[in-house]
């Protein structure tokens, strides 16, 4: 099966991440793709294979080579920030460098995404403008499967472990992996974008859930009595630094991101994710948030605002800095393929952000996918083919 056809097959399976569950997959539909991949892997006759109730697959292929087992990971779920139902991929051959019209209302404009110029003459896969595409991370899944089939046919490979995860988009996939079953010494997540990028640095991440209890009084007699929970929520939001929002930050700048808000007079709630490449800075940002909550509660005269901070993942560079041999291996493979490496920090996190601290150091490799989590997502198949060759060499 061609790499393009394999990706499109996977992309058409609805796998939108749902609400997180501690001991189960967030959306049963994700298990449909897990089942497909389980069958495909079993046809390759692994030495061992398992799947758990969350749909996470772990397959191992041993050999006589005296090399450490290495894992290759990708996730099956797609972001819930855009629809993943009825995905209708469209292939553009020999892209001409102009704006891409997806439908009468939606187009991918070069002025907004200037890196499209790098894709001139390439083959692209786009959406019909109504859904996301799912290159994040079905492109990674397809790359790993095609590379695996290639090296197994040639019988020239090292010990390989394939781990396909679920619920990465909601930060739960690493916690659903049974680490006692993982035999690889290190791994590679194939979950990035540009094929030049090898990502060894991620955010430190926290989430803050906020609940506000107001005091509802008839507005005609509300003076000095009413506490409008929705208004308190807005006051809290505007007490935070305006220019520390995702839309005003880039590169290694931190941010507070309001992911949702719901409010009425008696009660309101919201969630923030807080991100920084520095652990100390993350703590400072959380302290500032807590200080704002404290001050508003003091003004109101009671504990109207309550918040719970949850830590999600850490900057994986802390671990990868201790494993220079992994980066040396990557650099040799990229050099062999004539590709210059760009070590770029991830303004996000991957499965490896958590697994690196769980005993499985994992740099992140590109897939050729761009504009993730929205209807303007596209996949560069030429870059995808390059990454397949990179993964093949890493499997040898």
**Kindly, what is the distance between the CA atoms of the first and last residues, rounded to a whole number of angstroms?**
21 Å
Specify the biggest β-sheet: 7 strands, mixed
% residues in beta strands: 15-25%
The arrangement of helices and strands along the chain is HHEEEEEEEHEHEEEHEEHEHHHEEEH
Count of individual helical segments: 10
Q: What is the residue-averaged pLDDT?
A: 95
Enumerate the spans where pLDDT stays under 50 for 5 or more consecutive residues: none
Overall SS class:
alpha+beta
Beta strand count: 17
Helix content: 25-40%
Largest sheet, order of strands side by side?
1-2-8-3-9-15-10
The radius of gyration over CA amounts to 23 Å
The gross shape turns out to be globular
Task: Give a concise summary.
This protein has helices at 3-11, 30-43, 135-154, 173-176, 229-239, 279-300, 317-320, 324-336, 351-355, 381-395, and strands spanning 48-51, 57-61, 70-75, 90-92, 100-101, 107-108, 124-126, 160-165, 186-190, 198-199, 204-213, 255-263, 267-276, 305-313, 364-365, 369-370, 378-380. With 396 residues, it is an alpha+beta fold.
Keywords:
396 residues, alpha+beta, seven-stranded mixed sheet, four-stranded antiparallel sheet, 17 strands, 30% helix
Structure overview:
There is one protein chain. The chain is α+β, with helices and mostly antiparallel strands. Helix content is 30%, strand content 21%. The protein contains 10 helices and 17 strands. The protein has helices at residues 3-11, 30-43, 135-154, 173-176, 229-239, 279-300, 317-320, 324-336, 351-355, 381-395, and strands spanning 48-51, 57-61, 70-75, 90-92, 100-101, 107-108, 124-126, 160-165, 186-190, 198-199, 204-213, 255-263, 267-276, 305-313, 364-365, 369-370, 378-380. The protein has a 7-stranded mixed sheet.
